Amino acid sequence: MTDLSCDVAILGAGTAGLAAERSARKAGARTLLIDPYFAGTVCATVGCMPSKLLIAAGNAAHGVRLAPEFGVMTQPPQIDGAAVMARVRALRDDFVASTKEGFESLPAGTCVQSRARFTAPGELVLEDGRRVSARAVVLATGSAPVVPGPFKDLGDRVLTNQTVFDLPDLPKRLAVIGAGPIGLELAQAMARLGVEVTLFDHADRLGGLADDAVHEALLTTLRREMVLHLGTKATPEDAGEAVRLSWEGGSAEFDRVLLAAGRPPNVRDLGLEAAALTLDDHGVPVFDRETLQCGDAPVFIAGDANADRPVLHEASAEGAIAGRNAVAWPAVVRSARMVPFSMIFTDPPVVQVGRAPQGEALTGRSDYGDQGRARVEARGHGQVLLQAAAPDGRLTGAEICAPGGEHLGHLLAWAITEGHTASDLLSRPFYHPTLEEGLRNALRDICRATSRPLPGDQDEGAPPGG
Known about the structure:
29% of the residues lie in helices and 23% in strands. The protein contains 11 helices and 20 strands. The model has no long low-confidence stretch (mean pLDDT 96).
Protein backbone atom coordinates (compact mmCIF):
# COMPACT_ATOMS: atom_id res chain seq x y z
CA MET A 1 0.00 0.00 0.00
CA THR A 2 1.24 3.45 -0.88
CA ASP A 3 0.36 6.46 1.20
CA LEU A 4 -1.12 9.46 -0.59
CA SER A 5 -0.50 13.18 -0.51
CA CYS A 6 -2.28 16.16 -2.04
CA ASP A 7 -2.85 19.87 -1.69
CA VAL A 8 -6.57 19.51 -0.99
CA ALA A 9 -8.46 16.40 0.10
CA ILE A 10 -12.22 16.53 -0.35
CA LEU A 11 -14.31 14.12 1.70
CA GLY A 12 -17.58 13.43 -0.10
CA ALA A 13 -18.43 13.27 -3.80
CA GLY A 14 -21.83 14.92 -3.76
CA THR A 15 -22.78 18.31 -5.14
CA ALA A 16 -20.64 20.27 -2.67
CA GLY A 17 -17.68 17.92 -2.92
CA LEU A 18 -17.65 17.92 -6.70
CA ALA A 19 -17.82 21.74 -6.75
CA ALA A 20 -14.99 21.94 -4.20
CA GLU A 21 -12.79 19.58 -6.23
CA ARG A 22 -13.39 21.56 -9.44
CA SER A 23 -12.68 24.85 -7.70
CA ALA A 24 -9.49 23.62 -6.05
CA ARG A 25 -8.18 21.97 -9.22
CA LYS A 26 -8.97 25.12 -11.23
CA ALA A 27 -6.80 27.05 -8.77
CA GLY A 28 -3.89 24.70 -9.47
CA ALA A 29 -4.19 22.29 -6.56
CA ARG A 30 -3.48 18.57 -6.58
CA THR A 31 -6.74 17.08 -5.34
CA LEU A 32 -8.07 13.83 -3.94
CA LEU A 33 -11.82 13.20 -3.92
CA ILE A 34 -12.56 10.58 -1.26
CA ASP A 35 -15.96 8.87 -1.06
CA PRO A 36 -17.05 5.41 0.07
CA TYR A 37 -19.51 4.85 -2.79
CA PHE A 38 -19.28 7.33 -5.69
CA ALA A 39 -22.97 6.51 -6.13
CA GLY A 40 -23.98 9.93 -7.47
CA THR A 41 -25.26 13.04 -5.80
CA VAL A 42 -28.15 12.98 -3.32
CA CYS A 43 -30.08 15.19 -5.73
CA ALA A 44 -29.84 12.68 -8.56
CA THR A 45 -30.18 9.48 -6.54
CA VAL A 46 -32.60 10.05 -3.66
CA GLY A 47 -33.52 13.74 -3.67
CA CYS A 48 -34.46 16.44 -6.14
CA MET A 49 -34.90 14.41 -9.29
CA PRO A 50 -36.72 11.21 -8.20
CA SER A 51 -39.01 13.25 -5.97
CA LYS A 52 -39.93 15.51 -8.90
CA LEU A 53 -40.61 12.43 -11.03
CA LEU A 54 -43.08 11.18 -8.41
CA ILE A 55 -44.60 14.65 -8.10
CA ALA A 56 -45.00 14.86 -11.89
CA ALA A 57 -46.91 11.55 -11.87
CA GLY A 58 -49.14 12.79 -9.05
CA ASN A 59 -49.84 16.05 -10.85
CA ALA A 60 -50.75 14.15 -14.03
CA ALA A 61 -53.37 12.21 -12.09
CA HIS A 62 -54.58 15.40 -10.44
CA GLY A 63 -54.97 17.03 -13.85
CA VAL A 64 -57.28 14.24 -14.98
CA ARG A 65 -59.47 14.69 -11.90
CA LEU A 66 -59.55 18.45 -12.47
CA ALA A 67 -60.52 18.19 -16.15
CA PRO A 68 -64.32 18.34 -15.57
CA GLU A 69 -63.81 21.83 -14.14
CA PHE A 70 -63.11 22.89 -17.73
CA GLY A 71 -65.99 20.95 -19.22
CA VAL A 72 -63.70 18.12 -20.27
CA MET A 73 -65.37 14.92 -19.13
CA THR A 74 -63.11 12.02 -18.22
CA GLN A 75 -63.15 8.83 -16.26
CA PRO A 76 -61.32 8.83 -12.91
CA PRO A 77 -57.64 8.06 -13.49
CA GLN A 78 -56.53 4.45 -13.19
CA ILE A 79 -53.19 4.44 -11.40
CA ASP A 80 -50.72 1.70 -12.31
CA GLY A 81 -48.46 2.01 -9.28
CA ALA A 82 -45.85 -0.38 -10.60
CA ALA A 83 -45.59 1.61 -13.84
CA VAL A 84 -45.34 4.88 -11.90
CA MET A 85 -42.44 3.59 -9.81
CA ALA A 86 -40.75 1.98 -12.81
CA ARG A 87 -40.67 5.34 -14.62
CA VAL A 88 -39.34 7.06 -11.50
CA ARG A 89 -36.46 4.58 -11.29
CA ALA A 90 -35.72 4.56 -15.03
CA LEU A 91 -35.35 8.33 -15.32
CA ARG A 92 -33.66 8.53 -11.92
CA ASP A 93 -31.05 6.07 -13.17
CA ASP A 94 -30.46 8.24 -16.25
CA PHE A 95 -29.74 11.24 -14.04
CA VAL A 96 -27.43 9.14 -11.85
CA ALA A 97 -25.57 7.83 -14.90
CA SER A 98 -24.89 11.39 -16.02
CA THR A 99 -23.44 12.18 -12.61
CA LYS A 100 -21.20 9.11 -12.67
CA GLU A 101 -19.86 10.13 -16.06
CA GLY A 102 -18.51 13.19 -14.29
CA PHE A 103 -16.45 10.98 -11.97
CA GLU A 104 -14.92 9.20 -14.96
CA SER A 105 -13.87 12.50 -16.50
CA LEU A 106 -11.73 13.50 -13.52
CA PRO A 107 -7.93 13.20 -13.80
CA ALA A 108 -6.57 9.72 -13.13
CA GLY A 109 -5.97 9.04 -9.46
CA THR A 110 -8.30 11.78 -8.23
CA CYS A 111 -11.07 9.48 -7.00
CA VAL A 112 -10.35 7.36 -3.95
CA GLN A 113 -13.16 5.00 -2.95
CA SER A 114 -12.97 4.72 0.82
CA ARG A 115 -14.06 6.25 4.06
CA ALA A 116 -11.58 8.58 5.72
CA ARG A 117 -11.07 10.02 9.17
CA PHE A 118 -8.66 12.44 10.76
CA THR A 119 -5.73 11.13 12.80
CA ALA A 120 -4.19 14.60 13.22
CA PRO A 121 -4.65 18.04 11.65
CA GLY A 122 -3.97 17.58 7.94
CA GLU A 123 -3.63 13.80 8.29
CA LEU A 124 -6.26 11.24 7.30
CA VAL A 125 -6.41 7.46 7.34
CA LEU A 126 -8.37 5.36 4.85
CA GLU A 127 -10.20 2.09 5.54
CA ASP A 128 -7.36 0.05 4.07
CA GLY A 129 -4.82 1.71 6.35
CA ARG A 130 -3.28 4.08 3.83
CA ARG A 131 -2.42 7.54 5.09
CA VAL A 132 -3.36 10.74 3.31
CA SER A 133 -1.39 13.91 3.91
CA ALA A 134 -3.21 17.06 2.81
CA ARG A 135 -2.35 20.72 3.09
CA ALA A 136 -6.09 21.44 3.50
CA VAL A 137 -9.27 19.38 3.81
CA VAL A 138 -12.84 20.09 2.64
CA LEU A 139 -15.63 18.29 4.50
CA ALA A 140 -18.52 17.67 2.13
CA THR A 141 -19.90 14.46 3.59
CA GLY A 142 -23.57 15.42 3.26
CA SER A 143 -26.38 14.27 5.51
CA ALA A 144 -28.54 11.20 6.10
CA PRO A 145 -32.13 10.61 7.23
CA VAL A 146 -32.95 9.98 10.87
CA VAL A 147 -34.58 6.69 11.87
CA PRO A 148 -35.66 7.07 15.53
CA GLY A 149 -35.25 4.08 17.81
CA PRO A 150 -38.90 2.89 17.92
CA PHE A 151 -38.94 2.61 14.10
CA LYS A 152 -35.68 0.70 13.66
CA ASP A 153 -37.17 -2.76 14.23
CA LEU A 154 -39.96 -2.43 11.67
CA GLY A 155 -37.88 -3.46 8.67
CA ASP A 156 -38.84 -2.43 5.15
CA ARG A 157 -42.21 -1.15 6.31
CA VAL A 158 -40.30 1.98 7.31
CA LEU A 159 -39.12 4.15 4.42
CA THR A 160 -36.85 7.17 4.06
CA ASN A 161 -35.99 9.23 1.00
CA GLN A 162 -33.18 6.72 0.46
CA THR A 163 -35.59 3.79 0.01
CA VAL A 164 -39.01 5.13 -1.00
CA PHE A 165 -38.17 5.41 -4.70
CA ASP A 166 -37.28 1.72 -4.86
CA LEU A 167 -40.79 0.61 -3.90
CA PRO A 168 -42.01 -1.88 -6.52
CA ASP A 169 -45.54 -0.51 -6.23
CA LEU A 170 -47.49 2.19 -4.42
CA PRO A 171 -48.74 1.37 -0.92
CA LYS A 172 -52.43 1.58 -0.12
CA ARG A 173 -51.98 3.39 3.21
CA LEU A 174 -49.00 5.61 3.98
CA ALA A 175 -48.08 7.54 7.10
CA VAL A 176 -45.60 10.39 6.64
CA ILE A 177 -43.68 11.59 9.70
CA GLY A 178 -42.41 15.13 9.20
CA ALA A 179 -43.90 18.19 7.49
CA GLY A 180 -40.72 19.59 6.02
CA PRO A 181 -39.87 19.69 2.30
CA ILE A 182 -39.45 15.93 1.80
CA GLY A 183 -42.52 14.99 3.82
CA LEU A 184 -44.81 17.56 2.21
CA GLU A 185 -43.73 16.87 -1.36
CA LEU A 186 -43.98 13.10 -1.17
CA ALA A 187 -47.16 13.12 0.91
CA GLN A 188 -49.01 15.18 -1.69
CA ALA A 189 -47.57 13.23 -4.61
CA MET A 190 -48.62 9.93 -3.05
CA ALA A 191 -52.08 11.25 -2.21
CA ARG A 192 -52.62 12.37 -5.80
CA LEU A 193 -51.64 8.87 -6.92
CA GLY A 194 -54.48 7.40 -4.88
CA VAL A 195 -52.59 6.48 -1.72
CA GLU A 196 -54.41 7.08 1.57
CA VAL A 197 -51.95 9.48 3.22
CA THR A 198 -51.81 10.68 6.82
CA LEU A 199 -49.20 13.31 7.69
CA PHE A 200 -47.83 13.77 11.23
CA ASP A 201 -45.59 16.45 12.69
CA HIS A 202 -44.77 17.39 16.26
CA ALA A 203 -44.87 21.09 15.31
CA ASP A 204 -47.96 23.14 14.52
CA ARG A 205 -46.56 24.61 11.30
CA LEU A 206 -46.09 23.13 7.85
CA GLY A 207 -42.88 23.75 5.94
CA GLY A 208 -41.46 26.22 8.44
CA LEU A 209 -43.84 28.96 7.30
CA ALA A 210 -44.08 31.93 9.66
CA ASP A 211 -46.90 33.97 8.13
CA ASP A 212 -50.38 32.92 9.22
CA ALA A 213 -52.14 33.64 5.92
CA VAL A 214 -49.53 31.88 3.79
CA HIS A 215 -49.55 28.91 6.16
CA GLU A 216 -53.33 28.73 6.06
CA ALA A 217 -53.25 28.64 2.26
CA LEU A 218 -51.01 25.57 2.36
CA LEU A 219 -52.94 23.96 5.20
CA THR A 220 -56.26 24.35 3.36
CA THR A 221 -54.83 22.78 0.20
CA LEU A 222 -53.32 19.76 1.92
CA ARG A 223 -56.39 19.07 4.05
CA ARG A 224 -58.33 18.48 0.83
CA GLU A 225 -55.95 15.67 -0.11
CA MET A 226 -54.83 13.96 3.10
CA VAL A 227 -55.33 13.67 6.84
CA LEU A 228 -53.15 16.00 8.93
CA HIS A 229 -52.14 15.57 12.56
CA LEU A 230 -50.02 18.56 13.62
CA GLY A 231 -48.62 19.15 17.07
CA THR A 232 -48.70 15.38 17.48
CA LYS A 233 -46.19 12.65 18.25
CA ALA A 234 -46.92 9.26 16.70
CA THR A 235 -45.65 6.09 18.39
CA PRO A 236 -45.20 2.92 16.28
CA GLU A 237 -45.76 -0.73 17.02
CA ASP A 238 -45.52 -3.91 14.98
CA ALA A 239 -48.87 -4.97 13.57
CA GLY A 240 -47.79 -7.95 11.48
CA GLU A 241 -47.82 -6.91 7.84
CA ALA A 242 -48.65 -3.35 8.87
CA VAL A 243 -47.45 -0.68 11.31
CA ARG A 244 -49.79 0.70 13.94
CA LEU A 245 -49.26 4.32 14.87
CA SER A 246 -50.79 5.70 18.02
CA TRP A 247 -51.12 9.35 18.99
CA GLU A 248 -53.10 11.35 21.47
CA GLY A 249 -56.71 10.80 20.51
CA GLY A 250 -56.29 8.04 17.97
CA SER A 251 -54.48 5.19 16.26
CA ALA A 252 -54.43 3.60 12.81
CA GLU A 253 -52.62 0.99 10.77
CA PHE A 254 -50.47 1.74 7.72
CA ASP A 255 -48.78 -0.41 5.12
CA ARG A 256 -45.71 1.83 5.14
CA VAL A 257 -44.32 4.71 7.18
CA LEU A 258 -42.17 7.34 5.48
CA LEU A 259 -39.81 9.05 7.89
CA ALA A 260 -39.01 12.61 6.84
CA ALA A 261 -38.12 14.09 10.19
CA GLY A 262 -34.71 15.51 9.37
CA ARG A 263 -31.32 14.78 7.83
CA PRO A 264 -28.46 15.48 10.27
CA PRO A 265 -24.92 15.99 8.92
CA ASN A 266 -22.67 12.97 8.33
CA VAL A 267 -19.81 14.10 10.59
CA ARG A 268 -19.87 11.63 13.48
CA ASP A 269 -17.19 9.21 12.24
CA LEU A 270 -14.69 11.65 10.79
CA GLY A 271 -12.38 11.77 13.83
CA LEU A 272 -12.98 15.49 14.18
CA GLU A 273 -11.51 15.48 17.68
CA ALA A 274 -8.12 14.64 16.11
CA ALA A 275 -8.38 17.65 13.79
CA ALA A 276 -8.45 20.06 16.74
CA LEU A 277 -11.73 21.64 15.62
CA THR A 278 -14.29 23.38 17.82
CA LEU A 279 -17.64 21.61 17.56
CA ASP A 280 -21.13 22.93 18.25
CA ASP A 281 -23.73 21.17 20.41
CA HIS A 282 -24.60 18.85 17.51
CA GLY A 283 -21.01 17.83 16.86
CA VAL A 284 -20.69 19.96 13.72
CA PRO A 285 -17.52 22.05 13.32
CA VAL A 286 -18.02 25.74 14.02
CA PHE A 287 -17.34 27.60 10.76
CA ASP A 288 -17.42 31.01 9.12
CA ARG A 289 -20.35 31.30 6.69
CA GLU A 290 -18.46 33.66 4.38
CA THR A 291 -15.28 31.59 4.07
CA LEU A 292 -16.53 28.09 5.07
CA GLN A 293 -13.38 27.79 7.22
CA CYS A 294 -13.58 25.86 10.49
CA GLY A 295 -11.96 28.14 13.07
CA ASP A 296 -8.37 28.90 12.07
CA ALA A 297 -7.70 25.40 10.78
CA PRO A 298 -7.02 24.42 7.15
CA VAL A 299 -10.38 22.66 7.20
CA PHE A 300 -13.46 23.85 5.32
CA ILE A 301 -17.02 22.53 5.41
CA ALA A 302 -19.61 22.79 2.63
CA GLY A 303 -23.07 21.59 1.68
CA ASP A 304 -25.41 19.57 3.89
CA ALA A 305 -22.48 18.64 6.16
CA ASN A 306 -22.63 22.09 7.77
CA ALA A 307 -26.45 22.05 8.23
CA ASP A 308 -26.69 25.70 7.24
CA ARG A 309 -28.60 25.96 3.95
CA PRO A 310 -29.36 22.41 2.78
CA VAL A 311 -30.38 23.14 -0.81
CA LEU A 312 -28.52 22.24 -4.00
CA HIS A 313 -27.62 25.69 -5.31
CA GLU A 314 -26.14 26.60 -1.92
CA ALA A 315 -24.18 23.33 -1.77
CA SER A 316 -22.71 24.07 -5.18
CA ALA A 317 -21.78 27.64 -4.20
CA GLU A 318 -20.35 26.56 -0.86
CA GLY A 319 -18.25 23.88 -2.52
CA ALA A 320 -16.75 26.46 -4.86
CA ILE A 321 -15.98 28.82 -1.97
CA ALA A 322 -14.50 26.05 0.18
CA GLY A 323 -12.37 24.64 -2.64
CA ARG A 324 -10.92 28.02 -3.53
CA ASN A 325 -10.17 28.90 0.08
CA ALA A 326 -8.64 25.50 0.77
CA VAL A 327 -6.05 26.32 -1.90
CA ALA A 328 -5.60 29.91 -0.71
CA TRP A 329 -5.27 29.06 2.99
CA PRO A 330 -4.20 30.87 5.13
CA ALA A 331 -5.12 33.83 2.87
CA VAL A 332 -8.80 32.94 2.69
CA VAL A 333 -11.23 35.23 0.88
CA ARG A 334 -14.65 36.21 2.20
CA SER A 335 -17.55 35.72 -0.20
CA ALA A 336 -20.90 37.49 -0.24
CA ARG A 337 -23.52 34.78 0.13
CA MET A 338 -26.64 34.53 -1.98
CA VAL A 339 -30.05 35.65 -0.77
CA PRO A 340 -31.64 32.78 1.21
CA PHE A 341 -33.98 31.00 -1.19
CA SER A 342 -35.83 27.74 -0.69
CA MET A 343 -38.78 25.95 -2.27
CA ILE A 344 -41.11 23.09 -1.49
CA PHE A 345 -42.64 21.66 -4.66
CA THR A 346 -46.14 21.17 -3.39
CA ASP A 347 -49.08 22.45 -5.42
CA PRO A 348 -49.23 25.39 -4.90
CA PRO A 349 -45.48 25.65 -4.30
CA VAL A 350 -44.12 27.00 -1.03
CA VAL A 351 -41.32 29.54 -1.40
CA GLN A 352 -39.28 31.47 1.16
CA VAL A 353 -36.94 34.22 -0.01
CA GLY A 354 -34.67 36.52 1.98
CA ARG A 355 -35.69 37.59 5.46
CA ALA A 356 -37.58 40.24 7.36
CA PRO A 357 -35.76 43.59 7.48
CA GLN A 358 -33.97 44.82 10.56
CA GLY A 359 -35.91 47.68 12.06
CA GLU A 360 -39.28 48.79 10.76
CA ALA A 361 -40.83 46.29 8.35
CA LEU A 362 -43.24 47.20 5.58
CA THR A 363 -45.45 44.43 4.24
CA GLY A 364 -47.65 43.84 1.24
CA ARG A 365 -50.02 41.02 0.39
CA SER A 366 -51.48 39.45 -2.72
CA ASP A 367 -54.42 37.05 -2.57
CA TYR A 368 -54.37 34.56 -5.45
CA GLY A 369 -57.87 33.35 -4.69
CA ASP A 370 -59.23 35.98 -7.06
CA GLN A 371 -56.22 36.36 -9.37
CA GLY A 372 -57.19 36.22 -13.04
CA ARG A 373 -54.71 33.77 -14.53
CA ALA A 374 -54.94 31.50 -11.49
CA ARG A 375 -58.73 31.36 -11.85
CA VAL A 376 -58.47 30.67 -15.59
CA GLU A 377 -56.37 27.60 -14.78
CA ALA A 378 -58.65 26.52 -11.88
CA ARG A 379 -55.80 27.30 -9.48
CA GLY A 380 -57.37 30.28 -7.74
CA HIS A 381 -55.89 29.74 -4.30
CA GLY A 382 -52.88 31.09 -2.44
CA GLN A 383 -51.19 33.95 -0.65
CA VAL A 384 -48.05 36.06 -1.08
CA LEU A 385 -46.43 38.11 1.67
CA LEU A 386 -43.73 40.62 0.68
CA GLN A 387 -41.45 42.28 3.22
CA ALA A 388 -39.55 45.52 2.71
CA ALA A 389 -37.44 47.96 4.68
CA ALA A 390 -38.50 51.47 5.61
CA PRO A 391 -38.37 54.19 4.50
CA ASP A 392 -37.91 53.43 0.78
CA GLY A 393 -39.57 50.03 0.44
CA ARG A 394 -36.43 48.08 -0.49
CA LEU A 395 -37.51 44.44 -0.79
CA THR A 396 -35.96 42.07 1.74
CA GLY A 397 -38.05 38.90 1.86
CA ALA A 398 -41.14 36.96 0.89
CA GLU A 399 -43.24 33.96 1.85
CA ILE A 400 -45.34 32.41 -0.90
CA CYS A 401 -47.88 29.66 -1.24
CA ALA A 402 -49.41 30.41 -4.62
CA PRO A 403 -49.62 29.05 -8.16
CA GLY A 404 -46.44 29.74 -10.09
CA GLY A 405 -44.60 30.26 -6.82
CA GLU A 406 -41.33 28.84 -8.15
CA HIS A 407 -41.27 31.55 -10.83
CA LEU A 408 -42.44 34.35 -8.53
CA GLY A 409 -39.73 33.30 -6.09
CA HIS A 410 -36.98 33.65 -8.68
CA LEU A 411 -38.21 37.09 -9.70
CA LEU A 412 -38.19 38.24 -6.07
CA ALA A 413 -34.84 36.63 -5.23
CA TRP A 414 -33.23 38.49 -8.11
CA ALA A 415 -34.95 41.75 -7.12
CA ILE A 416 -33.77 41.43 -3.51
CA THR A 417 -30.23 40.63 -4.67
CA GLU A 418 -30.18 43.80 -6.78
CA GLY A 419 -31.55 45.93 -3.93
CA HIS A 420 -34.74 46.88 -5.77
CA THR A 421 -37.66 48.66 -4.15
CA ALA A 422 -41.32 47.88 -4.65
CA SER A 423 -41.54 51.02 -6.78
CA ASP A 424 -38.69 49.75 -8.95
CA LEU A 425 -40.58 46.55 -9.72
CA LEU A 426 -43.79 48.37 -10.47
CA SER A 427 -41.95 50.39 -13.10
CA ARG A 428 -41.25 47.13 -14.97
CA PRO A 429 -43.71 45.58 -17.43
CA PHE A 430 -46.18 42.97 -16.20
CA TYR A 431 -47.79 41.07 -19.03
CA HIS A 432 -51.51 40.29 -18.90
CA PRO A 433 -52.82 37.78 -18.04
CA THR A 434 -50.00 36.17 -16.04
CA LEU A 435 -49.46 34.93 -12.54
CA GLU A 436 -46.63 37.44 -12.13
CA GLU A 437 -48.98 40.42 -12.34
CA GLY A 438 -50.63 39.17 -9.16
CA LEU A 439 -47.60 40.54 -7.29
CA ARG A 440 -48.63 44.09 -8.04
CA ASN A 441 -51.15 44.28 -5.19
CA ALA A 442 -48.46 43.43 -2.64
CA LEU A 443 -45.99 45.82 -4.26
CA ARG A 444 -48.56 48.62 -4.21
CA ASP A 445 -49.25 48.00 -0.52
CA ILE A 446 -45.57 48.62 0.20
CA CYS A 447 -45.34 51.68 -2.04
CA ARG A 448 -48.27 53.35 -0.29
CA ALA A 449 -46.41 53.08 3.04
CA THR A 450 -43.09 54.46 1.81
CA SER A 451 -41.35 57.65 0.85
CA ARG A 452 -41.26 56.30 -2.72
CA PRO A 453 -44.87 56.21 -3.89
CA LEU A 454 -46.31 54.49 -6.91
CA PRO A 455 -44.66 55.60 -10.16
CA GLY A 456 -46.55 58.67 -11.32
CA ASP A 457 -46.64 57.62 -14.95
CA GLN A 458 -48.11 54.20 -14.16
CA ASP A 459 -51.80 53.30 -14.23
CA GLU A 460 -52.92 52.20 -10.76
CA GLY A 461 -55.88 50.27 -12.13
CA ALA A 462 -55.97 46.60 -12.99
CA PRO A 463 -57.30 44.83 -16.08
CA PRO A 464 -60.18 42.39 -15.60
CA GLY A 465 -58.88 39.43 -13.63
CA GLY A 466 -55.55 41.12 -12.96
